[in-house]
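Sequence design from tokenized structure. All designs in this work follow the same two-part layout: the structure record, then the generated sequence. An example of the structure record is given first.
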């Protein structure tokens, strides 16, 4: 058994393990431009942080009156995203150190993401994180994306872990809400600093208001060992 006892750790991917939001923004900007919607801004993109690609483009259809189907828009956005992701994805250094520490300690881990399975695979293999993170759940594989708990509950099932024994690492309010709904504790590392006061983050066991600038592998490990003792 690991130093954390029965605890397992479930990571969100985008904005948590990797700084992929610039790629998602650019993919969204290119996609909307193709369908006659110019000037998609970063501020507009921020409202979709933590929400699945499918739910994002469904909102675009309503907001911009697009005639293309959700499936078509998802395919176009994913095509643009994968072109960017293969060469331009950066892992947050302290997150990589944290994943490697957990792997060394034999802690069970999973990734539960709103991205497509193909996008997750491209990111993990391209960054080398796949050597430690082999259990993966895409929101496309479950009935509802975040803030519903489905992806986290499925990750726990695949790990053979009880939800109460899982700790989620998340950067977005919908993900924190999903972790809470799943009955899991949460380490919250807000990607958008202005959202740190969102009520969803109030349920986190550890909230790092400074986001990645405040996150360290050592502090997260220390909190986890304390959580294991409290279990």
């Amino acid at each position: 058994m690991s130093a954390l006892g029965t605890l397992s750790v479930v990571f969100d991917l985008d904005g948590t393990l990797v700084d992929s939001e610039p790629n998602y923004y650019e993919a969204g900007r290119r996609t909307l431009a193709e369908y006659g919607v110019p000037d998609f801004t970063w501020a507009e993109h921020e409202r979709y942080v933590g929400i699945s690609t499918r739910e994002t483009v469904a909102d675009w259809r309503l907001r911009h009156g697009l005639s293309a189907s959700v499936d078509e828009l998802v395919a176009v956005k994913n095509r643009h995203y994968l072109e960017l992701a293969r060469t331009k994805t950066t892992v947050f250094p302290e997150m990589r150190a944290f994943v490697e520490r957990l792997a060394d300690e034999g802690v069970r881990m999973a990734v539960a993401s709103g991205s497509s399975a193909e996008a997750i695979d491209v990111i993990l293999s391209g960054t080398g994180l796949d050597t430690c993170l082999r259990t993966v759940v895409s929101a496309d594989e479950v009935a509802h994306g975040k803030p519903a708990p489905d992806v986290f509950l499925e990750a726990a099932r695949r790990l053979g872990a009880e939800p109460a024994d899982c700790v989620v690492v998340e950067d977005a309010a919908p993900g924190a809400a999903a972790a809470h709904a799943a009955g899991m504790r949460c380490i919250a590392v807000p990607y958008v600093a202005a959202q740190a006061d969102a009520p969803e983050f109030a349920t986190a066991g550890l909230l790092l208001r400074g986001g990645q600038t405040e996150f360290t592998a050592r502090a997260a490990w220390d909190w986890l060992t304390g959580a294991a003792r409290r279990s």
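The first strand starts at residue 8 and ends at 11. We note this feature because it recurs in several other targets discussed in the main text.
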